[in-house]
Amino acid sequence: MTKLSVNINKIATLRNARGGNIPNVVQVALDIESFGAQGITVHPRPDERHITYQDVLDLSRVLTTEFNIEGNPITKFVNLVLQVKPAQVTLVPDKEDAITSNAGWDTVQNKTYLKEVISVFKENNIRTSIFVDPEPEMIKAAVETGADRIELYTEAYAVSYANGEKEGVMPYAECAKIAHELGLEINAGHDLSLDNIEYFKEKVPHVDEVSIGHALISESLYIGLEKTIQEYLKILK
Ligand SMILES: CC(=O)[C@@H](O)[C@H](O)COP(=O)(O)O
Ligand SMILES: NCC(=O)COP(=O)(O)O
C-alpha cells in the first residue's frame, strides 16, 4: 500500500486571500485525516505566502496522522522543524522566489551539506527525505547523505503523461528499483493527480508515500461543486 499525505498549502492560499480564517486550515487538516488520509504535508515558504510558521505550530498540536514538513533547510526552517518534531521532514532545494518547487537536489554537489543537516534531524528522531529528480546518480549519492527516504520529483512524469508519452514513467521505475536495492525508502510527489496516479502506482515499485496538493484540492472543488450549488439553490428557491 502507498500512503496518501495531503498537502494543504492550497487551503492556506485560499484562507490568506481574505485575511480571515476561512477556510480554517487546522480544521480542514483534521477533516482530511478523518476522511482517511494517512498524512498531512505542508511546505512553509520563507515569505509565508500560504502555510505560515504559526500554522505549522498549530497543526503540530492536533494532528494524529503523519506530519510531513517540506522546505529548504534555511536556519529558520530547521529551527521550526526541531521545535515541532514531525514524523518526517522533506528537504527541497527551493529558491526563495520560486513559484513552486522546480528541481531536486544535486546530491553529488551537496552531499556534505545534506549529510550535516540530515544528521541534526536524525539526532532528533525525525525521519528525513530528500527531494530528487529521477536520475540514478542522484539516488546513489542520496544514500551517502544518510537520508532515510527520497522523494521522487514527479513533475516531468506528470507532463509526459499528459502529453500521452507513457514512457516518461520509466526513469521513475528504474530509480525506485535502485533506491530500494540501496536501502532507501521512497516517496513521490509534485503534480500527481487522479489522471496520472494510477499508471504511476502500477509502474513504479516500492513507493511508500505520495504527497498531493494542487491537483487534489482542485479536483475536490469539482467533485464537491455540484452539491454545493444545489445546497444554495435549495435555500434560495
Ligand atoms: C516539494 C513539492 O513538490 C511540493 O511541496 C510543492 O513544492 C508544493 O509547494 P507549493 O504549494 O508552494 O507549490
Ligand atoms: N511533495 C509534493 C507535494 O507535497 C504536493 O505537490 P503538488 O501536488 O501540490 O504538486
Ions, cofactors, ligands: which are bound?
A: 1-deoxy-D-xylulose-5-phosphate, ligand LD2JLWAY
- Considering DSSP H and I runs of 4 or more, what fraction of the residues is helical? 40-55%
CATH topology: TIM Barrel
| Strand element count | 8
Protein name: Pyridoxine 5'-phosphate synthase
Function: Catalyzes the complicated ring closure reaction between the two acyclic compounds 1-deoxy-D-xylulose-5-phosphate (DXP) and 3-amino-2-oxopropyl phosphate (1-amino-acetone-3-phosphate or AAP) to form pyridoxine 5'-phosphate (PNP) and inorganic phosphate.
Keywords: Cytoplasm, Pyridoxine biosynthesis, Transferase
Subcellular location: Cytoplasm
Describe the structure.
By secondary structure, this protein is an alpha/beta fold. The chain is 46% helix and 17% strand. The protein has a single domain, classed as Aldolase class I (TIM Barrel, Alpha-Beta Barrel), CATH 3.20.20. It has helices at 9-16, 25-34, 53-62, 75-84, 111-123, 136-144, 155-162, 170-181, 197-203, 214-236; strands at 3-7, 39-42, 66-71, 88-91, 127-132, 149-153, 185-189, 207-212. β5 (127-132), α6 (136-144) and β6 (149-153) form a beta-alpha-beta unit. α2 runs parallel beside α3 (53-62) and α6 packs parallel to α8 (170-181). The model has no long low-confidence stretch (mean pLDDT 97). The chain binds 1-deoxy-D-xylulose-5-phosphate and the ligand NCC(=O)COP(=O)(O)O. 1-deoxy-D-xylulose-5-phosphate binds next to loops.
